[in-house]
């Protein structure tokens, strides 16, 4: 797996955040706490970076992933019981554009 160490740190940090804050909060609160946790581990974290999306050389909008860790891993915290096909499709779209 590419960027396995970063991915392991993200998962561990997310678990720590969830253990402290518990389920039931707004996604943005978990996202902000995850930034604090990842930065404490020495990672560079960018929030809400905008990527222009073009179609036939024309700007059609912007893609804004929640977090990018060390300019290598996209993190999109979700408040959900389980991941579904829509979540997977969204992440594939992020990877394609970024």
Topology:
Layout (H helix, E strand, L loop, with lengths): L3 H18 L5 H14 L4 E3 L3 E5 L2 E6 L3 E3 L3 E3 L9 H13 L1
Antiparallel strand pairs: 1-4, 2-3, 4-5
Helix pairs in contact: 1-2
- Class from helix and strand fractions: alpha+beta
Radius of gyration equals 14 Å
The H-and-E topology, N to C, reads as HHEEEEEH
Q: What's the arrangement of strands in the largest beta sheet?
A: 1-4-5
Largest β sheet strand count, sense and barrel closure: 3 strands, antiparallel
What is the rounded distance between the termini? 18 Å
Average pLDDT over all residues: 90
| DSSP helical segment count | 3
Q: What brief labels describe this structure?
A:
5 strands; 98 residues; two-stranded antiparallel ribbon; three-stranded antiparallel sheet; single chain; alpha+beta; 20% strand; globular; 3 helices; 46% helix
Please provide a written account of the structure.
The chain is of the alpha+beta class and 98 residues long. It has three helices and five strands, in the order ααβββββα. It has one domain (4-97). Helix 1 crosses helix 2. It is globular, with a radius of gyration of 14 Å. 13% of the residues are buried.
Summarize it.
The protein is built from 3 helices and 5 strands; from the N terminus they run ααβββββα. By secondary structure, it is of the alpha+beta class. The longest helix has 18 residues, at 4-21.
